[in-house]
Design goal:
The protein contains 15 helices and 17 strands. The strands form 5 sheets. A 7-stranded mixed beta sheet has the order 4-10-9-8-7-5-6, sandwiched between helices. α1 packs antiparallel against α12, α4 crosses α11 and α13 crosses α15. The longest helix has 21 residues.
Length: 423
């Protein structure tokens, strides 16, 4: 049955209800109490980085106040305590991604480093002249440039799976591109510029039928939906801690153990070795073979607290709430004359990119900022996406579970203010 359109968008929303106590959740994020330019902060730039709950801030502070020491090295009390906490995060991330073994969880600086690790370790060993790497037309630069560099080094070719005008991948083109030369497929789970949730399970299945491994860039997925790497059967999965309500400078690369075993080290130095002589070095076991040097210990401990926090709320509940929020915002913004949403895939996550006729996205961002609303305006490190849609940039609102419909209303009122200035 077709439902009548609610008198105001928010009325329909109120009735939809949500199992999450958002008012309560917001109290966990001290930064959200801030005023910006005299207005309450409305933080809608979560795809760039998300805010930190008090428990994450406390975990980082506690480490520096009470545990600061190097890990995996000392036999003293502080070092053992810090090592245990850092390694506990690895176990938490293993459960979070449902990886079968904590040896498959490699700590990196973030998604960018996770992808660079695979290109420079797996890629340099297994990709040869004449081989092909498949990526998609909606990748972030982090999932384009490292592959370009590898292809240049190896004499391989980078090929691109196209998308339609809604921002959905053309799977028949993908199947056509997958061939005997394909050595690896690298795909964003969720597009940061369009919000598209890609059919990654199907993408992995199609690649595996031809014996091709798949890397999934989970930067925009891991904070917003439950990820099960065993169910997806992906070969590599990477995400950034700072988008998952954790600290910057820490992230995760999941890799299937047989791949990681077969790969040479990415960087060399302390901790990634078991025995060093001037003649020969023996490398450490997984995952330490890929973790050279003193890591971001406080970041790792903070990430553990972040994983606990989102797991406590529940990724299913987060995904459901954000779906409602996105629908509410899409409906409200689409009703504005001259506004065009860029990225209208059927399956979308908490990203809403748009352009306004006759107004540069940077002007939208600047005027919204004066209203206390933080969005991102620009190419979102996805220039080929802008080229595909024929726009220089977009304005992008991106949501997290602490955002509310009232904040969406502030955004909508702000866009009307932009229109008043320009029309
Ligand atoms: N996107 C955005 O505003 P790092 O910088 O390593 O934490 O994440 C890189 C990255 C990789 N893949 C995707 C899909 C991403 O969205 C990002 C980061 C931010 O959209 C900053 S450019």
């Amino acid at each position: 049955m077709k439902r009548a359109r609610p008198a105001t968008v928010s009325e329909g929303w109120e009735k939809a209800g949500s199992p999450l106590d958002i008012a309560r959740i917001r109290q966990d994020f001290p930064i959200l109490r801030q005023r910006v330019h005299g207005k309450p902060l409305v933080y809608l730039d979560n795809a760039a980085t998300s805010q930190k709950p008090q428990c994450v801030i406390d975990a980082v502070r506690r480490y520096y106040e009470a545990e600061n020491s190097n890990i995996h090295r000392g036999i003293h009390y502080l070092s053992e305590r810090a090592t245990a906490e850092y390694e506990e995060t690895r176990a938490k991330v293993q459960r979070f991604l449902n990886a079968s073994d904590s040896r498959e969880i490699v700590f990196v600086r973030g998604t960018t480093e996770g992808i660079n690790l695979v290109t420079q370790s797996y890629g340099r060993k297994f990709v040869k002249a004449g081989d092909e790497i498949l990526i998609t037309a909606m990748e972030h630069h982090s999932n384009i440039v490292p592959w370009q560099i590898l292809c240049e080094q190896a004499g391989a070719r980078l090929r691109v799976i196209p998308m339609n005008h809604d921002g959905e991948l053309l799977l028949e083109e993908y199947e056509r591109l997958l061939g005997g030369r394909t050595k690896l497929v690298a795909v964003a789970h969720v597009s940061n510029a369009l919000g598209t949730v890609n059919p990654v399970k199907q993408i992995v299945e199609l690649a595996h039928r031809r014996g091709v491994p798949v890397l999934l860039d989970g930067a925009q997925a891991a904070p917003h939906m439950a990820v099960d790497v065993q169910a997806l059967d992906c070969d590599f999965y990477t995400f950034s801690g700072h988008k998952l309500f954790g600290p910057t400078g820490i992230g995760v690369l999941y890799g299937k153990a047989p791949h990681l075993e077969a790969m040479p080290p990415y960087q060399a130095g302390g901790d990634m070795i078991s025995l060093v002589t001037f003649e020969k070095t023996h490398y450490n076991v997984l995952p330490y073979k890929f973790e050279a040097g003193t890591p971001h210990i406080a970041g790792g401990i903070g990430l553990g607290a972040a994983v606990d926090y989102v797991t406590g709320i529940g990724l299913e509940a987060i995904a459901a709430y954000e779906r409602e929020l996105l629908a509410y915002a899409t409906q409200a913004l689409s009703a504005i004359r001259g506004l065009k949403v860029i990225g209208t895939a059927k399956e979308k996550a908490a990203v809403l990119s748009f352009v306004l006729e006759g107004v540069h996205p940077h002007d939208i961002g600047t005027i919204l900022d004066r209203e206390g609303v933080a969005i991102r305006a620009g190419h979102h490190c996805a220039m080929p996406v802008m080229q595909r849609f024929g726009v220089p940039a977009t304005a992008r609102a991106s949501f997290a579970f602490y955002n509310t419909k009232e904040e969406v209303d502030v955004l909508v009122r702000g866009v009307h203010k932009v229109l008043k200035v320009f029309r």
